[in-house]
Amino acid sequence: MAQLIADRRDIDFVLFEQMKADELAKTDKFAEFNKKTIDLIVNEARNLAIKEILPTNADGDKGCVFENNKVTVPESFHRPYELLCEGEWVAMQEDPEVGGQGMPAMVAQAAGEYFVGANCAFMMYPGLSHGAGHLVEVFGTDKQKELYLKNMYTGKWGGTMLLTEPEAGSDVGALTTTAKPNGDGTYSISGTKIFISGGEHDLTENIIHPVLARIEGAPAGTAGISLFAVPKIWVNDDGSLGEDNDVVCDRIEEKMGIHGSCTCVLTLGGKGKCKGTLLGEENKGMRAMFQMMNEARLGVGLQGFSMASCAYMYALDYTRQRKQGKNLLEFANPDAQSVTIINHPDVRRMLMTMKAYIDGMRSFLYFVGNCFDKHKTAGNEEEAEKYMNLIEVLIPVIKAYCTDRAFDVCSLAVQSYGGYGYTKEYPVEQLLRDTKITCIYEGTNGIQAMDLLGRKLGMKGGKPFMELMGVMMQTVAEAKEAGLEDLAAKVEAAVNGAGEIAMLMGKTAMSEKVLTAFAHACPFQDVLGDTIMGWMHLWRATIATNKVEKAKSKDKPFYEGLIKTANFYINSFLPITEGKRNSIKAMESAAVDMTEDAFAGK
Amino acid sequence: MAQLIADRRDIDFVLFEQMKADELAKTDKFAEFNKKTIDLIVNEARNLAIKEILPTNADGDKGCVFENNKVTVPESFHRPYELLCEGEWVAMQEDPEVGGQGMPAMVAQAAGEYFVGANCAFMMYPGLSHGAGHLVEVFGTDKQKELYLKNMYTGKWGGTMLLTEPEAGSDVGALTTTAKPNGDGTYSISGTKIFISGGEHDLTENIIHPVLARIEGAPAGTAGISLFAVPKIWVNDDGSLGEDNDVVCDRIEEKMGIHGSCTCVLTLGGKGKCKGTLLGEENKGMRAMFQMMNEARLGVGLQGFSMASCAYMYALDYTRQRKQGKNLLEFANPDAQSVTIINHPDVRRMLMTMKAYIDGMRSFLYFVGNCFDKHKTAGNEEEAEKYMNLIEVLIPVIKAYCTDRAFDVCSLAVQSYGGYGYTKEYPVEQLLRDTKITCIYEGTNGIQAMDLLGRKLGMKGGKPFMELMGVMMQTVAEAKEAGLEDLAAKVEAAVNGAGEIAMLMGKTAMSEKVLTAFAHACPFQDVLGDTIMGWMHLWRATIATNKVEKAKSKDKPFYEGLIKTANFYINSFLPITEGKRNSIKAMESAAVDMTEDAFAGK
C-alpha cells in the first residue's frame, strides 16, 4: 500500500502556483524562505511523517493507558516525538529567538498536512505544547517567558488548554474553577476540568497548563474569567523543577477515535496545593482565548482536512489496485476480465468528489494561512486590516466546513474500499473515527455558524464579508480573461447568490425572526463554504488553463485533472448550492416553532 | 437517560393511521392480526428490547473472542437470545406450521425496529438463522426441510450466508469455491469464504451454512454457481448431530463497529471432509440469491433506520435535559439562566433534521413492508404484480437511501451531544460506528444505484417506475383535498422533477454516455429517496391535518409536530433536491473522462 499522506504535486501547486509562496521571500520577515528552502522543509516534513510518524498511527489507535493517576502514551510515540523536537518542528511559525523556526504559516501548513495526516492524535501533543507556549509568549511576563517558553516551543515540556468543565462546555462563561491570591504573586487554583487533551502523559517531564479560572469576587460570566499558567510540576525561580503542583488526572475518556491522544479529567488543588501565576490581565482570560482562537480554529480545519487528504490518497491507491468486476462497457462479454475498481463510474464519482473537496480545501486553508502571512508582512495598516478582515470572516467557515467535508470524504473513502474499508486491516475506518472530533472540539460547527452569523457577518458594517466577495470576484474576472467564461459565470452566480443570502440572513437575524435566522446559520455557513470551493476551483482551473499547453509531459495530466475537477465541482455541485440557497430563502420556521412535546409522541 | 429506542406513538401512526395495518385482518392470511393483537405484539417486542436486549449493546461493543478456531460471543447475549427463541421472534413472518408466527411484514418491522435499535449486532444472529432458514424453506427438499428448517426458524440452530471470497465481493460471479459430487447425493465442498457474519459462535449447538459454490465443470461466472446447505456439524438422517463437518473459522475481523457480531473467515474442506447438499437446482444459486435479495435489502434498510431512530431518541432526550448557555433571545441579559440545549436554534435544526428523516424513513419502510403483505394477500395477479413492481423499484432506494441517511442521522446525534457524544460514556458514537456497515453490506449503496438505474428503472418498459409515480401523485391529490395545496404543489413538482430525471437517466444510460449516466446513478437514487421523503411527509401531514382539530389533547402536539415536520422537510429540503436534479441534468462527464494519472500529481 502506498503511504503518501498527501498529494505533493498539489501542495506545490497551491504553494507556488496559486498562492505564490516564494513572493513572501521578498519581505524582510520571510527573506530566508525562497522556493528552494520551502522545498527542503516540505521534503523533510514529508520524510519524517512517512517514515517515523505514519507507522505509529495504528498503534496509537490502541490508546493510552491510565493507571494510578498517570497516563502512558503508546510506546511508539516516543521516538517521533523526540525527532519532532530535534527537528524544531514544534513551533514552526514562531520567532527563532524564542525557539521557533520563523516559517510562513503556509509553509507550516504544508508540513503540518503531512504530520497530522500521518497521525493526528500524536500531533496533538506537540500542537498543544505550541499553542500553550503561544499564550505564554503573547500574554506572559518576562519571568514567565524565561521559565516556560523555550521549553514549550522546543517540545521539552508539554502544554494544554484547560477551559471546559462539566457544566461549562460551549458556555465557557459558566465555569467555576477558582483562583485565590496568595499574596506572593501566585494564586491557589481549585476546580475540575474535563476534556483536557494531553492533560497528563509521559512524553515530557513537565506540562504547563493554561487554566481559565475565576478570581474570588470576580464578576459572573465571561467578564470575570482570568487566565493562569499552572505547571504540572512547579518551576522554581531558577528554572529547576520543584514540587508536584497538585494537578491530578482522575481518569481519561474512552472515545470514538484519536485514542492516541489522551483526554483527561483533571482536578486542580484537590489537596489545596495547586498554584498558578496570572497570564495576562485579571478578568481578561476570555479576551486572551479569543486572540488565540483564529489560529486554533484554522489548525482544527487543517486537522480534518489532513486526515481526509490521507484518506483520499489511500482510497485512490486502493481503487487503482483492487480488481473486481468487469468494465461496465463489457458487461455482456463473458470473457471480459476483472478490472481495477477505479474503472467503475460510481467509484470515479466517489474519487472525484473526494478530490474536489481535498483540492478545494487545500487551496482554502493555504489561502487563509497566506492571509496570516500577509497580515504579518503588510506594508501598511490598511493592507494589514484587509487580511485580518478576511481571516475573521473565513475562520468559522474554514473550521466548520473543512471538518464537515473531511468527515464526508473519510466516509467516502471507507465506502470506496467496500467491506474492507470497515475493517481495521485498512486505515480508512480509523481516519473516519478520528476525523469526527474535529467537527466538535474548538467550538462545535454549530458554534462556528453562530460566530459567522452573529459576529463576523455584520462586523465593521459588513466590510470583511464584502472584501471576501471582492476577492472572489477578482478570480472570476481572471478566469474570464483566461477563456473560462462558462465556469466563471457559474461561480459568479454562486458568489452573487451567497451575497444575497448573506443580506437576507443578516436582516432576518436582526428582526423578530432571529431564532429562525439562527436555525439557518449552519446551512448559511455551508453555502458560503460551497461557494468558496467553487471560487478555489475556478482559480485553480484558470492557472491550469494558462499553463497546460506548455506544460512538461509529466505535468499535463495534473493540470488537465485540475480543469476537469473544476468542471466537476462547478457543474455538479454548485447547482446543489443553489438549491441550498433556495432552501434558506424559504426561511422555514418550523424547527423553532415546534413545541418540545411535538418532537416525539407520548 | 430514557431508553426508548423508538417513538411508539409514531409507530402506531404509521401502522394504523397511515398504512392501515388493521385492514390486513380482513384477509384470510392475516385474520388473526387485528389492532389489539398487533398492539400486544409491539408491546411485547418493546419490552423485550428495552429490558433484555438494549442493556447488552454496550457490552456487545467489547466484541467477540476468537480462540482455537472458536468464537465466543459476549456473555450477555445468551439470555436475550434464549428469550427471543422462546418468544418465537426468530421467524416472525413465516408460517406457523414451519415454526414462524405468520405476522404481516409491517408488524414484524415494528418489532424489528425495537430489537435492532436495541442491539443491531446481536440481532444479526437470529436474523441470519431466519434468512438461511428461508432459503431452506423456499429451495430445500422435503428432507432438508425436515432436518433443518424448524431448528433454524426457532433459533435452536444458527444460519449464515457464504457468498463472499477474497477475490469475489461485489462480483460474486468470480467465486472459486468448488463442489464435487460424492455420488451419494452429497457434495464435497472446498474453498475459503470471508466476511461471514455469525460464521462460528457459541450461541447455538449447530449452524447451517448456505454456501455458493461452483460444481466442477460448471460454466464460468454467475451462470455456474450453485447453492448448498453445509452444516457446521453434520446432521444425520434421523436428525441427530453427527461429525464435525470441517468448516473451520480461521479468524474474525477487527472492525469499526458491530463488534458483537463476529465476522468470520471460514475455510471449508481444509481437511477434505466438508460435505453439503444441493439447495435448489444446479447452477441456479444466483437466482436463489436474487429471490431472497428484496427481503434482505429491506432488512438492511431497517437496520440502518432502527439504529438512527434510536440515536434520535437519545439525542432528543439528552438535549431536553442538558443545560448549557442562555436562550439566544436573552443573550445580553447577564442574569439569564442556562437553558436546556433543545432551546438553541441550531440544536433545533439538528433535531428537526433527524426527525424529518426518521419519520420519513419509517413511513417508507413500512410502506414497502405493506407492499409485501399486500402482494401476499392480493385478490388477483394484476394487483399482486402491482405490489411486486413497487417492491422491485423501491428496494435499492430503501436499502441505500435509508442507510445513508441513517449514518447522517447518527452523525447529527453525536454532534448534538457535543464532546460527550464522542465518548463511550454515551451511546451515540457506537450507533454511528455500527450504522456505517449498513451502507456497505448486502450490496454497497453504489451497487444499489446500479441496480436501480440498470435493472429497475427500465424493467417492464418502465412500468414499475410509472406505478410509483402514480402512487405518489395520489397522495398529492389527497393532500390538495385536505387543504394542503401549497405543500402538495411542492411535492408534485418534486415528483414530476424526479420523473423527468428518470427519463434523462434512462436515455443517457442507453446512449454512448453510459458511463457518465452510471456516474450519476447514486445522485439519481438520492433524488428519488428525497422525493419519497417528501411524499411521505405530505401523506403524514394530510392525515394529521384531517385529525388534529378533533384530536385528544395528548395527541394534538403529535399531529402538530407531523405538520410542522412536513413543512420543514418540504420547504427546507426539497429545494435542495431540486438543486440535485439540476446537478444531474448538467450530466457532467469529468469524473469518467479523467485519466487515472490525473487523480493525483506525480
From TrEMBL, chains A, B:
GO molecular function list: flavin adenine dinucleotide binding; oxidoreductase activity, acting on the CH-CH group of donors
Where in this chain does the record put each Acyl-CoA dehydrogenase/oxidase N-terminal domain?
40-156
What do the Gene Ontology cellular component annotations say? plasma membrane
Q: Which domain of life is it from?
A: Bacteria
- Decide whether keyword Flavoprotein is in the record: yes
Residues covered by the Acetyl-CoA dehydrogenase-like C-terminal domain: 472-594
Identify the keywords attached in UniProt to this record, alphabetized. FAD, Flavoprotein, Oxidoreductase
Q: Where is the signal peptide?
A: none
Show the PANTHER family listed in the entry. Answer: ACYL-COA DEHYDROGENASE, BROAD-SPECIFICITY LINEAR ACYL-COA DEHYDROGENASE FADE5
Q: What is this protein called?
A: Acyl-CoA dehydrogenase domain protein
